[in-house]
Design brief:
The chain is an alpha+beta fold. 33% of the residues lie in helices and 24% in strands. It has two domains: 121 residues, Conserved hypothetical protein from pyrococcus furiosus pfu- 392566-001, ParB domain, CATH 3.90.1530; 100 residues, no CATH class. The strands form four sheets. Strands 8-10-9-12-7-11 form a six-stranded antiparallel β-sheet. It has a four-stranded mixed β-sheet with strand order 1-5-3-4. It has a two-stranded antiparallel ribbon with strand order 2-14. Helix 2 crosses helix 3.
């Protein structure tokens, strides 16, 4: 991505125009709000679908801006239909939760392939899996209806039932590593881009950690002054562009080609 491309991709968008697609985690929100106010900066731009203005990544940042009544937001607008942008999910894992301990949900023993087929056809809400003697022991939690909003509603209830337990979230492509380490994992359906957009546009936000996006050329460490976002969009864009061009001319840009771990 060339320097001028970065300037073009970063735009100032009215905060009220942005559509949230995922619920927030209250603890994460409070921690982020404190950090943003202490620094006085929006560190990373919010990733936004350029067609529908759905927040693809940055729902917590958007919520902080809403809370402090910030009228504008710095966004990286993306073509969400770009096939290089991939969708995954975050799966809950636990070492102590048993399949029959989820209040309001009855487990049904299944083999792994059948369970995944039921999950993907909206017949299941979650599927519990744990390795016993090297083989996956699986239990399916059925959904009440084969409709996406109903499954999402059931997932929300399910996650509320386990939120006080020792549950963590891991990327769907890393779950086998945790199964090998003795954790149980709760598999769920990976949503399509079309489903994510339609639900957000309809105002039906998904439970926290429902989606995980792999976005090439994601811009991070913008470090934009929150005060600038209180100006008119035109003035804020002008100040942001001037700051970006100065930093880019000074060589303050790095493209990571390897996997990186960012500590917040």
């Amino acid at each position: 991505m060339l320097a001028e491309d970065i300037v073009t991709k970063l735009q100032i968008v009215p905060t009220e125009k942005l559509k949230q697609h995922e619920e927030i985690i209250q603890y994460n929100f409070q921690r982020l709000r404190e950090a943003m106010l202490n620094m006085g900066r929006l560190v990373d731009p919010i990733i936004v679908d350029s067609k529908h203005y759905v927040v693809i990544d940055g729902n917590h940042r958007k919520k902080v801006l809403d809370t402090i009544k910030c009228p504008n937001c710095a966004c990286q607008l993306i073509d969400y239909e770009n096939p290089d942008i991939k969708v995954g999910s975050w799966f809950p894992i636990s070492k102590t939760v048993k399949p029959d301990e989820i209040a309001g949900f009855k487990p049904e023993k299944v083999d792994f392939e059948t369970g995944m087929r039921e999950i993907n056809s909206l017949n299941g809400t979650f599927m519990y899996a744990k390795k016993i003697d090297g083989k996956k022991e699986c239990f399916l939690y059925n959904s009440n209806e084969q409709k996406l909003p109903s499954v999402i509603s059931q997932q929300r209830k399910f996650m509320s039932a386990i939120e006080s337990r020792d549950v963590q979230y891991v990327a769907d492509d890393k779950v086998d590593e945790y199964l090998d380490a003795g954790h149980a994992a709760f598999y769920r359906r990976i949503y399509t881009k079309k489903e994510i957009i339609e639900e957000a546009v309809a105002g039906r936000v998904m439970p926290p950690k429902s989606t995980r996006h792999m976005i090439p050329d994601r811009i991070i460490r913008l470090n934009l002054h929150l005060g600038w976002l209180a100006e008119s969009p035109e003035v804020c864009k002008e100040m942001m562009d001037e700051m970006l061009r100065r930093r880019l001319n000074e060589g303050s840009i790095r493209r990571y080609t390897e996997t990186v771990i960012v500590l917040y």
